[in-house]
Amino acid sequence: MSEGAGKAQEKRKIQAIKGVRDILPPETALWNRVEQTAHEVFATYGFGEIRLPIFEATELFARSIGTETDVVSKEMYSFKDLPTRNELALELWDRSVQFTPSGDFQSDEEKQLFEERKKGELLTLRPEATASVCRAYIEHGMHTLPGNVKLYYMGPMFRRERPQKGRYRQFYQIGAEVLSHTGDLKDDARVDAEVIEMLTTFFEKAGLEGTALYLNSIGCKECRPKYVELLRAALTKVKDKLGPDSQRRIETNPLRVLDSKLESEQAIIEKLPRIAEHLCPDCLEEYTEVKKQLAMRGISYAQNFRLVRGLDYYMRTTFEITAPGLGSQNAVCGGGRYDGLVELLGGPPTKGIGFAIGTDRVILSLQDMRKLPVERALDVYVAWMGEKNYPAAVKIARRLREAGLAVELPPGEMKFGKALGLADKLGARYALIIGDDEVATKQFTVKRLEDGEQKKLSERELVEHLKAGEAP
Ligand code: ATP
Ligand code: MG
Known about the structure:
By secondary structure, this protein is α+β, with helices and mostly antiparallel strands. It has helices at residues 3-11, 27-44, 58-65, 70-75, 85-94, 108-118, 130-139, 185-206, 224-237, 244-252, 266-270, 281-296, 341-344, 359-368, 390-402, 416-425, 436-441, 459-468; strands at 48-49, 55-57, 77-81, 121-125, 149-158, 170-180, 212-217, 302-303, 315-322, 331-337, 351-358, 380-384, 407-408, 430-434, 444-448, 454-457. Helix 2 (27-44) runs antiparallel to helix 8 (185-206) and helix 8 (185-206) crosses helix 12. It is globular. The protein binds adenosine-5'-triphosphate (ATP) and magnesium ion.
C-alpha cells in the first residue's frame, strides 16, 4: 500500500457495523427504567439475577436450539478460538507431559490430546440465554437447592438476521426461567400461570399498553410427531395451492407453514388440523389447567393454534405477547415450557418454563406511545468568574452534588452573559454565581432561571434553598 492510500484509510470514518446500534441519552433513561422495573417485579416473585457469559461453546446452542432451526442453521456468530503456541506449551508444562529424547510424545494419548487442542474451540456469541441458564444450572449443581430454581437475566443477544425496525443483529432480552424437578402436571400449570402473571405485571408497571397474550400448547414428544404427520398429510393435499417456501417445508418442517405470512395461504392455514385438538391426555390436562389458572388470575388471553416457537426445545405451554406500534415485528415476548432440555445438556431430569422479552421492541413501543421518562434535569449551573475563584467553585459544586443535586461546573472561565446563556440552553433550574464579591463575603448569588428571581445565601443556606426547589 502506498503511503497516500494508507493515510486515506486512516482518516476513513469508522462506523458501527450493520445491524448494531448505539443507544444514547436520553433514550438510555428509558432503558434503565424498563430494566429497573424488571429487577423490581421479578424480585417480588422470588427470582434472583444470573449474569451469564456472552459467548459459549457452539455445541451448547447446536444441541439445545436444534440444528434445523433458522437460529442455528444461519443466524449464529461463531468463531474459531485457536490457542497460541505459548498457551499450548504452558498446558503441556502444567500436565508434566513427557517426551522421548528425539522430541516425540511419550504417550499416544497425550499426542492425541495435543492434536485436538491445536484445532481450537468453536465458540458462538449467544443468540439467546435459556441454554446458558441450563448449562449454569448443571454446572453449579443447582438441582440441590431447596425449592424451584428461579432465575432471570438481561443483556445482549446476537443473531445474523436482516436488520429492520425492531430486528437487529445485536438486540437485548430480559428473560426468566423456572427449573424444577418435583410436582405433577397441575403444579406445572400453576408455575406456567404464575410466570405469565409476572410478565403481565411487568408490562403493566413498565407502562406498556395494548399488549395481547397468545397461548398454545405444542404437545410433547408423544403427541407432536403424530400431529406433524397429520399436518403433513393435510398439506400434501393442498400442495399446489401453497407458495414455494411452504411447499418445501411440507417435508422439512411442516409446523413452520403455520407461521407463514403469505396472504394467499391464509385461508388454507385456517382449515388445517390444529395441534390443540390432537394432544395426548397429559398435554391436554396441562393445557386445560393452564387456561383455568390464567382465568383464576384474571389474565385474558387468546388461543392461537398457529403459535409454534422457532426453537426446537419447547413443548406444551407456548405463549407470545404482542404490543402496538411495531409493524410486523410486533412480538415483544416469547416463551414456553422446555421439560427435558437440562437432561439433553447432560443434567438430571428437570422441568423448565421461561420467557424472553425483546427489550428493543418494548422501548420502541413505549416511544410510540410517547411514554418517555422525565429526564433528570440539571439543577445548578455554576457560573464562576476569576481564575482564583475556581477552587471555591469546585468545593461548592462538590458539596451540592453530595446533597444529590445535578451540577454543571464548566472547566473554563466564561463571561457572565455567555455562562447564563449556556445555563439556559442546558435547562438548568438555577445559576449559581461565584465571583470575587461572593468569595470575599461568603454570600453567593443564586438566580432562578425560570423567572430571574435572585437571592444571596450562605453556603449552608444554599443547599437547603436549592434542595427545596428540586423537581419532585
Ligand atoms: P421473531 O419471530 O420476531 O423473529 P423469535 O421467535 O425469533 O421472534 P425468540 O427467540 O422467542 O424470538 O425471542 C424472544 C423475543 O426476542 C422476541 O419476541 C422479540 O421480541 C425479541 N427478538 C428476537 N429476535 C430479535 C431481533 N433480531 N431483534 C430484536 N428483537 C428480537
Ligand atoms: Mg426470529
